[in-house]
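WARN  no MSA supplied for this record, continuing single-sequence
INFO  ligand: calcium ion
INFO  echoing inputs
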Amino acid sequence: WLPLALAQTDPLPSWNEGPARQAIVDFVAAVATEGGPDYVAPGDRIATFDNDGTLWSEQPVYVQLAFALDRVRALAADHPEWKDAEPFRSVLAGDLNAVVASGKKGLAEIMAATHAGMSTDAFEQVVADWIATASNPRTGMLYTAMIYQPMLELIDYLKANEFEVFIVSGGGIEFMRAWTERTYGIPPQNVVGSSIRLEYVETDTGPVIMRLAELNFIDDGPGKPVGIQSHIGKRPIAAFGNSDGDFQMLEWTTSGSGRRLGMIVHHDDAEREVAYDRDSPVGRLDKAMDAAPAEGWLLISMKDDWKTVFPGR
Amino acid sequence: WLPLALAQTDPLPSWNEGPARQAIVDFVAAVATEGGPDYVAPGDRIATFDNDGTLWSEQPVYVQLAFALDRVRALAADHPEWKDAEPFRSVLAGDLNAVVASGKKGLAEIMAATHAGMSTDAFEQVVADWIATASNPRTGMLYTAMIYQPMLELIDYLKANEFEVFIVSGGGIEFMRAWTERTYGIPPQNVVGSSIRLEYVETDTGPVIMRLAELNFIDDGPGKPVGIQSHIGKRPIAAFGNSDGDFQMLEWTTSGSGRRLGMIVHHDDAEREVAYDRDSPVGRLDKAMDAAPAEGWLLISMKDDWKTVFPGR
Ligand SMILES: [Ca+2]
Ligand SMILES: [Ca+2]
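INFO  complex generated
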């Protein structure tokens, strides 16, 4: 009776029957069936997931940007000079348009002021403290509650079938590592992301690793396959994204030989989340959606394919 | 009778009784005993191993340098200009002293000519083909046979006690990844090393990741804790090295709070391997040996602590 009981436990209860769910189940069965034509040894069952917009909500602004702006506010008392200096003045005045208008230079200054100049341990603590209470301005929900229940089930389903699951995100690697294990069950060593340069420094109270205000690596677009190669050293057989920033990760994954799976979370559910794609400044999905049919990438419709969006809702 | 049978199976049969073996067994028991004062959750049982001189022999020259020199010879027919250009002329003439005299600039040229300008897949194949037959000039043994049996047992012992084991080496990350899984049972994603820059390139026959002739990261000395933070994102609780290049990795590991283990393989066995430490240009062990007593790092004597050095010998 045991196999029957196992078979009756649906590993993907938040997914509706449909082509997306079917593609996942068929793919996993194919690569996990020993002796089958598509069999892949467990050690090579590598699956990579984008984070923003694929595992959690990214609207109205990336959570890490919300963190940076909150940090400017929290640190403002120690920086009286910010009252008269852009882009900080606009952040403190709540003028997000002016912050955006400050461009890459302004954003780099905000990142340097909020993400660098401290040890990795100190930064981890700051992020962990912030994420414990920070909430989405639109919904009032904790950011860590606005994760996608169907994707959590997918991660667990892959792990149960001896996949090793990685996050591969344009977001900051240490920003994510502070909470991904608790939130998704994905530990720090399985998180790949953008990074600033680190330096090992001996101090009177022992060594620390300092975060320098210098960009090290951008894990987005063509950077994603490079980040994958650098951190994992194996080509994934399955990849999940939601925007054009995932184009090359999907391409690198599905152009390998043997059976592959590439899927794109399509934000088409205005009622339960936010509907956006080609015209969104955050998480734009345009080129990858055009390429999907020819590349064999399947869209996941949040509206049609998901019974539930957020856990417990 | 099962616990007794398990207890009777020595997990470290190639280790002699003595302080090194005892320190390992005591440490593992301490961190793996639930409810004990030194207990560490399995997810935080991170152990890092240097490679050259810690897991395999590094004398008379680093294996990766032997690979580079062999590649120059193999590629010479396609590069007639090398006959008249240093450092290649000296490599082809077998004049290793002149190669060494060419310094960092010469070595960088050799590395660029042999390690870059090809895809990651092509490089992996070249390394795999080479390591399958390449042998140590002094012993005639395959390089992959000159690995340390006691360290293999240690890796397996740690894994059996729910440690996650990583290589953290000054050697090239992709040079190692081509053979570490087969040789040590350590997969590519658990290998941290020095790297050159990578670039994702679309070609007519699909995408490739190209290896550029540009240094990206040196995973040695103070680079080791940085490589650990970048790839693992957790501080190890145990680290194993053999030279001054491991000083900061040992320091970073053992200066963390809670129970820690730092050990140094001491090459003091001229009969079964090679005896060297303070004066060796390859794998110099000087500053770390001086610091060991105060830092609580234990030396592993190859001569006294190891029953066997190489597998099957
Ligand atoms: Ca995204
Ligand atoms: Ca070494």
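The two ends of chain B are 33 Å apart (CA to CA).
INFO  checksum written, moving to next record
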